[in-house]
UniProtKB/TrEMBL annotation, chain A:
Name of this chain's protein: Amino acid ABC transporter ATP-binding protein
Single GO term (MF): ATP hydrolysis activity
The keyword Cell membrane is annotated on this UniProt entry: yes
SUPFAM superfamilies: P-loop containing nucleoside triphosphate hydrolases (SSF52540)
Provenance organism: Phyllobacterium brassicacearum
PROSITE patterns: ABC_TRANSPORTER_2 (PS50893)
TrEMBL record, chain B:
Organism: Phyllobacterium brassicacearum
Subcellular location: Cell inner membrane; Cell membrane
Keyword line: Amino-acid transport, Cell membrane, Membrane, Transmembrane, Transmembrane helix, Transport
Protein name (record): Amino acid ABC transporter
BP terms from Gene Ontology: amino acid transport
NCBIfam families, alphabetized: HEQRo_perm_3TM
Isomerase among keywords: no
Family annotation (PROSITE patterns): ABC_TM1
Gene3D superfamilies associated with the record: MetI-like (1.10.3720.10)
Length: 246, 235
């Protein structure tokens, strides 16, 4: 359902994406792993055009776009069918928890307040925030903020969920509560892309692992292929160093 | 000297001072919004003119800006072939609106830029249009950040209204001078002291209003623990 071809992007003279190809089937849960600075987050943000690749194409179901000829209608269509969970949470600071979840439904999807509220209550219950509805982001912990972010993303009923290092800026003891929610989301069958450094978690929830290195997809396969029998020497080296930490 | 005569005489001119202040406040705010929008969106050509306007408003002394308005406006009016309606009061309102708008744009622009990139990203990723993003997410946060600077801008504006006497508008300052001269300049100190009290009161009221909005918005304080500030009038 999602197909990226030959994505290239550089900041100044630093090449971030060096011809990335990635295709995702409906229902896939794909984890993207790899060393820092290899363009994992950038790749994810290319999908909803938060960063602008210099060249490459994207296919989203029947929608096709060449990044050299950005098409606002296509970008908006993709944004309406995807939802992103951010490393820095990016919960709207001027709104309460429930307003955060309701606002996109009311403003973008033009649902009635009552309908939006019903959906928001349901999603917030799912992430375990029913008791924080009227709190402002400044009153919440990192884990609660990220769960608000996940509820906001789920509420728009996206076809694809994009998780951008959702636990990387959390205190270690808050990681668990967020991972539990993500696991619940991905096991519900929604197509998901997850950039993460939580190797064990990626192995458990994904049906596919993509290893990125120096701006390209260096290895791509099932969790068993990637973790238990890494064929690529860079991948083996990376996994060794990651597992040494964990 | 009889204060009970002098003070009412000065207060008689207060409505004009207030009218000029409020006109400049409202027109300046609208101007600042438009200018800031052009400047942050970097609309070609228009944003360069906006930059030029802001640097005029911020770098030319306010007295000079008033003279420019007073002598320049009739020329502009003449271009449009309408009857000259430019009185000192109108020139004062136009001149100060332009000054205040440019000054305020340099309060709003940094406030807009201070809103985290991530807030834009989140709104964009959810499909908000630019307008929706500004109205719902970025604008309210930017306004909150801008409030202290806005309070300063208002206070500077009130001070600068005192300069309109140079182009012949009869505000409290100009009236004070008339009163002093009529009294053979015997009570200059006393008159200026009363004038100072009037301006202090105006600024205090402005400060209280801005402070009210600061407190009202502090519930979504952008920092986790808002700094405890004692309620001291800093005007």
């Amino acid at each position: 359902m999602l197909e990226l071809k030959n994505l290239k992007l550089s900041y100044g003279s630093t090449q971030i994406l060096n011809g990335v190809d990635l295709s995702v089937k409906r229902g896939d849960v794909v984890s993207i792993i790899g060393p820092s600075g290899t363009g994992k987050t950038t790749l994810l943000k290319c999908i909803n055009y938060l960063v602008k690749p210099a060249s490459g194409t994207i296919g989203f179901d029947k929608l096709k776009m060449d990044y050299q000829r950005p098409d606002n209608t296509a970008i908006q269509a993709i944004r309406l069918r995807t939802a992103m969970v951010f490393q820095q949470f990016n919960v709207f600071k001027n709104m309460t928890v429930i307003q955060n979840v309701m606002d996109p439904l009311v403003v973008v999807q033009r649902k009635s307040k009552d309908e939006a509220r019903a959906i928001a209550l349901q999603e917030l219950d799912r992430v375990g925030l029913s008791d924080k509805l009227d709190s402002y982001p400044s009153q919440l912990s990192g884990g609660q903020l990220q769960r608000t972010g996940i509820a906001r993303a789920l509420a728009v009923k996206p076809d694809v969920m994009l998780f951008d290092e959702p636990t990387s800026s959390l205190d270690p003891e808050l990681v668990g509560e967020v991972l539990r929610v993500i696991k619940d989301v991905t096991s519900s069958g929604i197509t998901s892309l997850l950039v993460t450094h939580e190797m064990q978690f990626a192995k458990n929830i994904s049906n596919r692992i993509v290893f990125m290195d120096r701006g390209v997809v260096a290895a791509d396969g099932s969790p068993t292929e990637i973790f238990d029998a890494p064929s690529n020497p860079r991948l083996a080296q990376f996994l060794n160093s990651e597992l040494a930490i964990q | 000297m009889d204060l009970s005569i002098m003070i009412p005489e000065l207060l008689l001119a207060l409505p004009l001072t207030l009218a000029i202040t409020f006109t400049a406040m409202i027109a300046g705010f609208v101007l600042a919004l438009i200018t800031t929008t052009f400047r942050v969106r970097r609309t070609p050509v228009v944003s360069q003119f906006a930059d030029l306007y802001v640097s005029y408003a911020r770098s030319v002394p306010v007295v000079l800006q008033l003279f420019v308005a007073f002598y320049g406006l009739p020329l502009v009016v003449d271009l449009f072939d309408v009857e000259d309606f430019v009185s000192p009061n109108v020139a004062a309102m136009v001149g100060l609106s332009l000054y205040h708008g440019g000054y305020l744009s340099e309060v709003l622009r940094p406030a807009y830029l201070a809103v985290e990139r991530g807030q834009h990203d989140a709104a964009d990723s959810l499909g908000y249009t630019f307008r929706q993003k500004i109205l719902r997410v970025v604008g309210p946060q930017a306004v909150h950040i801008a409030l202290p600077g806005y309070g300063n801008a208002i206070i500077y504006l009130i001070h600068n209204v005192a300069l309109v006497m140079y182009i012949g508008a009869a505000d409290v300052m100009a009236t004070a001078h008339l009163v002093m001269e009529r009294d053979y300049n015997q009570y200059q100190f006393e008159t200026y002291l009363v004038l100072a009290a009037i301006y202090s009161l105006l600024c205090l009221v402005a400060w209280l209003v801005v402070r009210f909005f600061e407190m009202r918005n502090s519930k979504f304080a952008l920092t986790a623990t808002p700094a405890k500030v004692t309620m001291m009038a800093s005007v």
